[in-house]
């Protein structure tokens, strides 16, 4: 989650010699597959662990409450577009996987969250690619 596109695009473009489009496309696709896994698998895993282990039930309860408190109403203010904003922001500790986690924590339906996550990741990838292409070797 720290690097995502911020590492894969420069490495693919500068070190492996992929074309700009290929570096962008494969990096976005790779992150998107990880986001799909988070969106579809995290809820059943959390439910299973919470049912069978009281420590996980306490942990997930704390996580959800803590996250909702820390967002200071931003999710309510921006709605599902907050997922897009997280995915489109190409800085460390924010990005597509963080957006997917937010979709999970706030219970955003996958039909709404996945298109927003993909669009945000495409934007973030474009920003990273442009910055990569501007940096001289």
Question: Which features would summarize this protein structure in a list?
Answer:
137 residues, mainly alpha
Summarize the structure.
The protein is mainly alpha-helical and 137 residues long. Helix content is 80%, strand content 0%.
What report would you give on this structure?
The structure is a single chain. The protein has 137 residues and is mostly helical. It contains 7 helices and no strands. Helix 1 (5-15) crosses helix 7 (110-134), helix 2 packs across helix 3 and helix 2 (20-52) packs parallel to helix 6 (96-105).
Largest sheet: none
Radius of gyration: 16 Å
Give the distance, in angstroms, between the N- and C-terminal Cα atoms: 26 Å
Q: Tally the helices.
A: 7
Binned, the helix content reads over 70%
The average pLDDT is: 89
Q: What class, by secondary structure content? A: mainly alpha
The SSE string, one letter per element, is HHHHHHH
Unreliable parts = none
Shape: elongated
Got a strand count?
0
User: Strand portion, in percent?
Assistant: under 5%
The protein's oligomeric status is single chain
């Amino acid at each position: 989650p720290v690097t995502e596109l911020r590492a894969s695009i420069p490495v693919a473009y500068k070190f492996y010699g992929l074309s700009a489009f290929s570096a962008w496309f494969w990096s976005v696709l790779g992150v998107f597959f990880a986001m799909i896994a988070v969106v579809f698998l995290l809820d059943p895993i959390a439910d299973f662990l919470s049912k069978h282990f009281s420590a996980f039930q306490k942990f997930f309860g704390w996580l959800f409450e803590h996250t909702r408190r820390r967002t200071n109403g931003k999710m309510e203010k921006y709605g599902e577009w907050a997922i897009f904003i997280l995915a489109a922001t190409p800085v460390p500790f924010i990005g597509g996987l963080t957006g997917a986690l937010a979709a999970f924590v706030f219970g955003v339906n996958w039909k709404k969250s996945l298109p927003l996550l993909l669009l945000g990741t495409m934007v973030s990838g474009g920003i990273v690619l442009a910055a990569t292409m501007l940096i001289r070797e």
